[in-house]
Amino acid sequence: MKKPNMFIVVAAVVAAVMAATWLLLAAPGYTGNEINMTRGVTSQSTINYSLHMTVLWICIVIGIIVFSAMFVSIVLHRKSRGYNPAQFTHSTKAEIIWTVIPVLILVVMAVPATRALVNMEVAPETEMTVKITGFQWRWKYEYVEDGIDFISSLDPDSNAARRLASGTPPEEVDNYLLEVDKPLVLPANTKIKFLITADDVIHSWWVPALGWKRDAVPGFINEAWTEIMEPGIYRGQCAELCGRDHGFMPIVLHVLPRAEYDAWVLEQQNPESVSRLAASPARPAATAYENE
Amino acid sequence: MSMETTLSHDTPAHDDHHHDKPRGLARWLYTTNHKDIGTLYLVFSLLMFFVGGSMAMIIRAELFMPGLQLVEPEFFNQMTTMHALIMVFGAVMPAWVGFANWMLPMMIGAPDMALPRMNNWSFWILPFAFAMLLSTLFMDSGGPAAGWTLYPPLSLQGGQSFAFVVFAVHMMGISSIMGSINVIATILNLRAPGMTLLRMPLFVWTWLITAFLLIMVMPVLAGAVTMLLTDHFFGTSFFNAAGGGDPVMFQHIFWFFGHPEVYIMILPAFGVVSEIIPTFARKPLFGYSAMVYATASIAFLSFIVWAHHMFTVGMPLTGALFFMYATMLIAVPTGVKVFNWVSTMWKGSMTFETPMLFAIAFVVLFTIGGLSGLMLAIASVDLQYHDTYFVVAHFHYVLVPGSVFALMAGAYYWLPKWTGHMYSETWGKIHFWVSAISVNILFFPQHYLGLAGMPRRIPDYSTQFADFNMISSIGGFIFGASQLIFVGVIVHCVYKSRQKATDRVWEGAKGLEWTLPSPAPYHTFDTPPVIDETTIAHAHSRH
């Protein structure tokens, strides 16, 4: 049988493996659906995004090398081509090489991974504190310094549409399952400390744009911190199975420029002044406990 | 039943025992024969595979579109919980014990398992354990709905049926412990003369290590669920913060069991694939000793990485760093295994019968699951990945096209030895291609869903996740249906196939099991075989 040109086979296989990789990892993005981790709006989320991409690329390159070697072998070294099997059984040198090289790759990964974790866990001096308490199936927010507290539950429109055979298609509800009656309002460009706990079972407070999630454990208080760079609306969900309505306790952040935030705080502390500050995106305080 | 009549230990009573096997139901109830018990395990696990699979179909059907169309959230949670418990404890683990029963004695030249009566008992516990577990679905308080991890305090909110769940887990644990004692006793005591440890087939090695893992961690699980039981029914406060307990302590105990548990499900898969690839590459396994040491390293590391399942619970920085580094290290011995499989194929003379196809798919798709596992090890990024569909995609890649594909590869590989007939190669290949394509349609899009922010264990989701959930569900339905082909191939092979299998079955097959007739007689190796270079498996690493 004609000896195949090794170079052509390798090139074709590598091209095919890379095409398959692209089809799996990049092409689905063209559907318009989000397929990757958000860059987010905090230093932690940005660091995590770039670390995620670094590790992903390392994995892609390893995958392409390993799978290419394998498929070159599958193309060339088959009985139907009359290929006679070699009989080599081991090579200590090879084993050492493919033990040492992965260790080196891991060390390269471990350096930024360690730095990111230190940045995540070691909180800077914070300017304000919000206590978050998970309940089945809503969140309670307490602004420790400003004496504001309220409960945030699934928006009534979503809550009606999500019932079994409700008759309302989810597409007709704005931000289906990702809207609340009263969002957590936070100032931008401010270092905020969160104290996270739960009242009944374990929940997990997660807004992807902040770059982390933290479990809310009854009887224990977890700390986390953030500094949100850009005002805007950010959405998340409970991430730890917490019972029947685990899928129905979203988190919504309204992040305001500092001045608007200060005005919102005043408004919350003096509910009569609501009309003067109607421009605030947050809903009136009067509805805060209606869902209780 | 004739090759072994010379040795003096064959007393008349012993003979009777050998040649008179009861017929019908009694044969299966009273059997102490490793092949019968292996068959029982395999049939039982196949049944559980379909029970757990039906639950997966309900899950994927509900997730087909946003909005709740079919089931209430509480029932959905029962389905995710039961699906996992049944697949882990009822399908994958018993299937590997079935393979161990059938193959270990035949691979090491032993007449049977070392403790045949206990073997019978360890199997017959299982149908009762799973009947009890499944019966909770019909009780007033419903089945367990807190996830297979049974995290308190949520799991303690379950009603009276929770006691049945705990007892079922205890029974499964007892069964597993007895099964692994049997495996260890068999391998360490019943090897034929000349079958030294470093000549054992890789499947024997991986099962020996798996059995030690089982013995070490199943009692830990039993302890954890017992503490849940007393917290629930007897007023203790192991995990109740209000009573001075700690809910997070349960997670530490559970994952000290749980992480070795995932290797319990994958190490025998490594073993099977290490038998199949050399056979169809017609070339000895590359780096046999390295494979053994890599397996042992993975087993050791599995005990010191448990808290990587818990990066979000809040742990000291140094703790998180330790568990991150230890977890990343697992990539090294796992990489060694993958490189050795590729090197085994390299310059072989390959053919691609169904077992080889499943084994190759195993290497590729398990590697994808391994690489996403490496990503999950990065503690700070795990604070994004954790409890999302990215994790669901990761562990299904290592479990379904990992463990389950290896089970199917093994089933096709040894079916002719078990039954004496060849299965239909055409239908085997159809089964392979439909499964291999649909399993990727099912699980690959779940990576995107997780990265885009979809939490796991939710019955309904925001509309932005609709497209990939629908694609995933379609893949799931095809994958589920295609497993009926598997059953068809097996039934045909056992009852209808007229193509006789040769003793060696596969041209490149090596190892003691292939020196026996096909089908393997009811009793084999009553006289220990003579081990020489031609009969040992792909084990030898030196010429």
Write the layout of secondary structure elements.
The complex is a heterodimer of chains A (292) and B (543).
Chain A: H1 6-25, H2 43-76, H3 92-121, E1 128-135, E2 138-143, E3 148-152, H4 156-161, E4 184-187, E5 191-198, E6 203-207, E7 212-216, E8 222-227, E9 232-238, E10 250-256, H5 258-269
Parallel strand pairs in A: 1-5, 4-10
Antiparallel strand pairs in A: 1-2, 2-3, 5-8, 6-7, 6-9, 9-10
Helix pairs in contact in A: 1-2, 2-3
Chain B: H1 12-19, H2 25-30, H3 34-62, H4 73-108, H5 116-135, H6 162-189, H7 202-233, H8 247-281, H9 288-301, H10 317-329, H11 331-345, H12 354-377, H13 379-385, H14 389-419, H15 425-452, H16 466-496
Distance between the terminal alpha carbons of chain A, to the nearest Å?
A: 79 Å
* H/E topology pattern of chain B: HHHHHHHHHHHHHHHH
Q: Strand count, sense and closure of the main sheet of chain B?
A: none
**Structural class of the helices, strands and pairings of chain B?**
mainly alpha
- In order across it, which strands form the biggest sheet of chain A? 3-2-1-5-8
Label the structural class of chain A. alpha+beta
Oligomer: heterodimer
Unreliable stretches covering 5 or more consecutive residues of chain B: 1-17
The stretches of 5 or more residues of chain A where confidence is low (pLDDT under 50) are: 276-292
Write down how many β-strands of chain A occur, each being a DSSP E stretch of 2 or more residues: 10
Mean pLDDT of chain A: 90
Gross morphology of chain B: globular
**Mind telling me the C-alpha Rg of chain A?**
26 Å
Which sequence of SSEs, written as H and E, runs from N to C of chain A? HHHEEEHEEEEEEEH
Percent in helix of chain A? 25-40%
Chain pair forming the biggest interface: A-B, 100 and 99 residues
Beta-strand percentage range of chain A: 15-25%
Mean pLDDT of chain B: 93
Which characteristics define this entry?
heterodimer; A: about 290 residues; alpha+beta; 5-stranded mixed sheet; 5 helices; 10 strands; about 35% helix; disordered C terminus; B: about 550 residues; mainly alpha; globular
